[in-house]
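USER: I would love a firmer grasp of how sequence relates to backbone shape in proteins. This is the protein in question:
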Amino acid sequence: MIENIVRRRWRDNETAFGAMLGIPAISTARAMSGAGFDWVIVEQQHAYVTEDKIPALLHAIELGGSTGMVRVGENDPIGLQRALDLGARGVIAPMVNTRAEAEMVRDNVRFPPLGRRSWGAPPLHSSPAESDADVLLLVMIETPLALANAEAILSVDGIDGAVMGPSDLSLTLGADLKAGIEDPRVWEAFETLGEVSKRLGKHYGAYVFTADVAQRMVEHGADFVLFSTDIGYVSQGAATDIAAIDRIRRASAAATPQR
């Protein structure tokens, strides 16, 4: 079995850097993983990835040299278990607000006696114990309620850590959505999540929009940083070329003799 790079980074006290995959194309998956990210997360919550696409995308991610995981669209038992049966090395559960919700997620990711996941001969693991030792389970903290319950959520055995969702947290806190984690209220929430996580021996991190924010997070002690999505990289690349095209057009127009 190929090594789980995120777990290795953490064993070595290093930060794991990742990105999101929302375009259900093998070529995109290979491009993202081949770029050098430690992990690439297949995005079901806000993108276009259906269940039947997941195995090929995860395989392409592994072939490209990254560890493949899935952010499920919703926290239902079948969706969580299926993501793992289809080959994910970990799952990210969105919008976890209470300990009870965290326990439900844990129960469907971990095998007995810790959880209640059904054994369906997962392709990557030879035994339930091997799966539980390898598979990552991260829950998303995205609301003031989740932040208030962070200690109760992260104290659930079998949960490895938490991802702060700065966009949804900005919305629910009434903060600046475009600023995200750079808004003082959202950054304060990130610091709170970090303090709780470290005290409980769990891992934490967040999505970022800029390298400067990523550096600030790492200096604060974040265990992982999630950069943009494939869709974001396509948009950024296209915008860069369109800006160049505009400059060329202006230069061409200026050089054309007036008639």
User: Anything to note?
Assistant: The chain has twelve helices and eight strands. The mean pLDDT is 94. The first helix runs from residue 5 to 11. The CA atoms of residues 208 and 214 lie 6 Å apart.
